[in-house]
Specification:
The complex is a heterodimer of chains A (314) and B (285). Chain A is 70% helix and 0% strand. With 314 residues, chain A is mainly α. The chains are: A mainly alpha (314), B mainly alpha (285).
Chain lengths: 314, 285
């Protein structure tokens, strides 16, 4: 469930005017920006941008980019984009790093629905004049390239049907590959990148029933093998995305790992989806409410914005 | 009743690609017992003298005739289907038939626009309750698997922009892959697959030009192969498929239908010629 708090009545003209006022004169009224944008859903934010453009012949996004800075600016910029466009930007940023952020690419390709992923691919082309798979292929090498390209190219069947015979045999295939440490085996990639999510969950369940332990436990996370790490991330994203997101938040807050952008990324991309359930998971796992942990770990306008997206009342 | 003329007409109705339904109606429906007997005796191509005292129809002829009669039906159905459903069904059929038919999958994956291919993938979900890449990955066991799955999953950028440096380096990669074909099949080479399956079509065109064409059969070459009575059944089926699905491109290429006149026959011929004529009418003057 979404965590953002959206009022019943919204006037896009008034919102555009309020944002204009917040950006005029010396300095910026960040609180006003947060109080408007932090309480609007994607469709409304789009209308506000259009209204702003019409009233002031200026791109609201560009205006905000010039007015704001730091973590706050990054968060607001990502928040204000359309979800598909946002994912395209996140993917591009991840790809172009000198050491690409594989996990972000995997996160986007495995946690979004098949239709959402298609929308991301379209948005990516519109923005960067290349296909997503083309850029991923050009910036990565070896087995990990193979895995990433098939993951972003997938258009998985979206239905509920499960074939238990296939789940059984593919659980065995995965088990054999893991046992022989042949993780990059073609069959592993085939299964992970083409099966529907329901089918994969059945396979992972069967694996757990057969082996007595979940498949992720048998894909060691601490090893230096980047392919293995990527595979593990993919399995976790496909098997239980909310649990995966909770872990990203936890690592980001505790500063373990190198995903500096994780906090912003997860909150911004899930606030309209399932951040509520992720919050509940966080509390169960850490005995501390997520709001509290975020408040302790961040400061200033950035903190205020994140807390607003988390559903905190003004 | 001049039997020899009718014999000749009957033979003609059964030669060519398709059957001449109208002639068949006027001859066969109007034939009596004696006429038909004389057909059978006079037509050694279709009937042979059986030792038990009757004229037997050649088994393979029966099989071929079935295919020829079907041709019109298949052309109409193919033409009526929504392009997405049509392409999804063509892929599924080709995949089931096996390796000799994989060229159909390549044809569809490469000649459709990005959105048409996407549409076919969506239709595949609806029709077969699996993704096309899922089925391909399970049914294709040989070396073609990676390439086919990659081609069918592509959502190529469709703008004209091309980076010349990348073109040159990728032409090199392809040429090396082909030079080393004895050590490793080019279609299994990861870099080759990435280039062919992810780059935009203008980019690939530039790569081919730079390399000087790797096996690039134009549409018209495929058709010429199919438009011979002695051609194999698959080439003949290609005639229907390519003309029905690529009418626009053919008319643009200036494909002249007069080759068809001589060799196709019956309702099938009328339908194919009609399809091309319709497309001609769409051409801007």
């Amino acid at each position: 469930m979404a965590t953002i708090d959206v009022p019943n009545q919204v006037s896009f003209l008034e919102d555009a005017e309020a944002l204009r006022k917040a950006c005029q004169g010396w300095g910026t009224d960040e609180k006003a920006i947060i109080s408007v944008l932090g309480h609007r859903n994607a469709a409304q934010r789009k209308q506000i941008r259009l209204a702003y453009e019409e009233l002031y012949q200026e791109d609201l996004i560009k205006r905000l980019e010039s007015e704001l800075s730091g973590d706050f600016e990054r968060a607001v910029y990502r928040w204000i984009l359309d979800p598909a466009d946002r994912d395209a930007v996140l993917a591009n940023v991840a790809i172009r790093k000198s050491s690409p952020d594989h996990h972000v690419i995997i996160e986007i390709s495995c946690t979004r629905s098949p239709e959402e992923l298609l929308a991301v691919r379209r948005a990516y082309q519109a923005r960067y004049k290349h296909s997503l798979e083309e850029d991923v292929a050009a910036h990565t090498k070896g087995d990990i390239r193979t895995l990433l390209v098939v993951l972003v190219s997938a258009f998985r069947y979206d239905g509920e049907e499960i074939n238990t015979r296939v789940a059984n045999s593919e659980a065995k295939t995965l088990h054999d590959a893991i046992k022989d440490k042949a993780f990059n085996h073609e069959e592993v990639i085939r299964i992970m990148s083409t099966r529907s999510k329901m089918q994969l969950m059945a396979t992972f369940n069967r694996y757990r029933d057969d082996q007595g332990t979940s498949i992720t436990k048998n894909l060691p996370g601490a090893s230096g093998d980047e392919f293995l790490l990527a595979l593990r991330t993919a399995v976790r994203c496909l098997n239980d995305p909310k649990k995966y997101f909770e872990k990203v938040l936890r690592s980001s807050i505790k500063r373990t790992g190198t995903d500096e952008d994780g906090l912003t990324r997860v909150i911004v991309t899930r606030a309209e989806k399932d951040l509520k359930e992720i919050k509940d998971l966080y509390y169960k796992r850490n005995s501390v409410p997520l709001d509290q942990a975020v408040a302790k770990d961040t400061s200033g306008d950035y903190k205020a914005f994140l807390l607003t997206l988390l559903g905190k009342e003004d | 009743m001049a039997y020899p003329d009718h014999l000749e007409a009957l033979n003609k109705a059964f030669s060519g690609i398709g059957v001449d339904e109208n002639s068949l109606i006027s001859i066969v429906a109007n034939s009596n017992h004696e006429h038909k007997k004389s057909f059978r005796k006079g037509c050694s191509k279709l009937f042979i003298e059986d030792q038990n005292g009757f004229e037997r129809m050649d088994q393979s002829i029966i099989k071929n005739l079935k295919l020829e009669f079907k041709r019109f039906r298949d052309a109409v159905v193919l033409s009526l289907l929504h392009p997405w459903e049509r392409d999804a069904r063509l892929i599924e059929k080709a995949m089931k038939k096996g390796q000799k038919h994989y060229d159909v999958i390549v044809e569809i994956a490469c000649t459709r626009s990005s959105n048409e291919l996407l549409g076919a993938r969506k239709a595949y979900h609806s029709l077969f309750h699996h993704s096309v890449e899922e089925h391909l990955a399970t049914h294709v066991k040989g070396c073609e698997r990676k390439l086919l799955v990659a081609l069918v999953s592509a959502y190529r950028y469709e703008g004209p922009k091309v980076n010349e440096d990348v073109v040159k380096s990728e032409a090199e990669i392809l040429s090396n892959a082909i030079k080393n074909a004895d050590k490793r099949k080019p279609i299994e080479d990861e870099d080759t697959i990435m280039i062919l399956a992810t780059r935009s079509k203008p980019h690939l065109k530039a790569v081919y030009e730079h390399y000087n064409k790797i096996c690039d059969k134009s549409l018209t070459e495929i058709l010429d192969a199919g438009l011979s009575v002695d051609g194999d059944e698959e080439s003949k089926r290609a005639v229907t498929r390519v003309i029905v699905t690529q009418r626009e491109a053919l008319v643009k290429e200036g494909y002249a239908p007069n080759k068809i006149q001589g060799i196709l026959t019956g309702h099938y011929k009328d339908f194919i010629l009609g399809s091309l004529a319709r497309e001609e009418m769409n051409k801007p003057l």
